[in-house]
Amino acid sequence: MKIVVKFGGSSLASAKQFKKVADIIRADKARRYVVPSAPGKRNDKDEKVTDLLYQCYDAASQGKSYKKILDKIRDRYEEIIDGLHLNVNLDHEFQTIEENFVAGLGREYAASRGEYLNGILMANYLGIPFIDAAEVVFFDEHGNFLSEETNEELSERLAHVERAVIPGFYGSGRDGKIHTFSRGGSDITGSIVARAIHADLYENWTDVSGFLVADPRIVDNPEVIETVTYKELRELSYMGASVLHEDAIFPVRKEGIPIHIRNTNRPEDKGTLIVENTCRKPRHIITGIAGKKGFCSMYIEKAMMNSEVGFGRKVLGVLEDQGISFEHMPSGIDTMTVFIHQTEFVAHEQQVIAGIHRAVAPDFIDLESDLALVAVVGRGMKGNRGTAARVFAALAHARINIKMIDQGSSESNIIVGIRNDDFEDAIRAIYDVFVTSEI
Ligand code: ASP
Fold it and tell me: What are the C-alpha distances in Å from 42 to residues 15, 22, 47, 53, 113?
């Protein structure tokens, strides 16, 4: 059995957290490859080392004073070294970092040092080899991740090492520079390592006990989702639920490796298992509820629209020309409505309206702003009667007007459009019907 374990920033924010992490790793011999993030926040007021590195680099590369921030960064690592009584001296590393910052080696190089240094400390603490991600994770000269080259090199390299620490978030480019993934990208490194070694499991350790059925800022103490499929997760993440970097799914999905989200501070909790497919019945008909505010709708009416071939394509062509992506497009007999991100739309509003007049000569266009979308997601909904009825009844009882309804034939989600102001109440109402009232 081979497990890849990735630990997030808050799991590695201090010596105390490092100890918990080491206990977790030692508790199961199969936990062989460790992917650390940079030290994160120790409390709400604290700063992430990655953020400090960006600040420090910006100052140093622009000739401004940076020493104080660099000292702050160094202190974070020294606290860990002292607390764990490690025999590591980072003088040389920090000297190189400082020189490279002043020389302007790049923001991505700067940010990557957080994981790099934490990786060195972690390897030292665990007494296992350190493999610099720059040697095994590759990007092209534009910073696009090279998945196949990386997979080849990493599999080859790890075939000869029983255990190792590989820092997350960065790799090296064809241009010889260090590149990083987008923020939160250590999740992706963990997934890449899991794929390369054909892991049985990718454990992603963080500071929450898994994915929650609904946003805890809206619903009090929401239940944890025990098992979620990649597809459900994609839908929930797209609609705003965030625990894992969105791109972390792709490498393991190719290999059918499950991801287990666990809580470093509560290792006894079950967490959430993310799988390709499962026969495990979800506890409730729905798996999760997520949503986003900030949409607007454009309603277009034209007599005999239904028989005009190419109408929809022409409308969407106008949006495409303005670089706007659409979210949903419900249609009636002689009407269609397009849901779009408000900020994207507002910037090009008048060009879009003029473009639609030119393209399809509509009778009437109406715009509505400040809308929200709520997605009710669940594999359990397929082939089951009454889910839509319960969603709509819940909203009706909460006195919420539904502006749009969208359910694909996969039956794995129902999306409703409502007013921004109703967003929180809608989520609570749906949660109550499907979860609270079933407990
Ligand atoms: N340290 C990086 C960040 O703060 C990457 C990560 O933690 O995954 O975004």
Answer: 11, 18, 8, 17, 19
Mutate which of 169, 181, 206 to test ligand 1's pocket (most atoms within 8 Å of Cβ)? 169
CA distances from 39 to 14, 128, 180, 286, 433 (A): 7, 20, 16, 36, 40
Chain segment 6-36, per-residue pLDDT in tens: 999 999 999 999 999 999 999 999 999 999 9
Residue nearest to atom 5 of ligand 1 (CA): 184
Query: pLDDT by residue (tens digit) across 126-137?
Result: 999 999 999 999
- Tokens 């009710």 sit on residue: 376
The backbone torsions φ and ψ at residue 139, rounded to the nearest 5 degrees and listed phi first, read: -130, 160
First to last CA, the chain: 36
In 103-185, where does DSSP find H-type helix? 107-126, 147-158
CA atoms within 13 A on the CB side of 4: 28
Please give the distance, rounded to the nearest whole angstrom, from the Cα atom of residue 282 to the centre of ligand 1.
31
Distance of CA 111 from the midpoint of ligand 1 (Å): 8
Q: What predicted TM-score, i.e. pTM, was given to this entire model? A: 0.88
Q: What is the secondary structure of 357-369 as a DSSP string?
A: HHHH--SEEEEEE
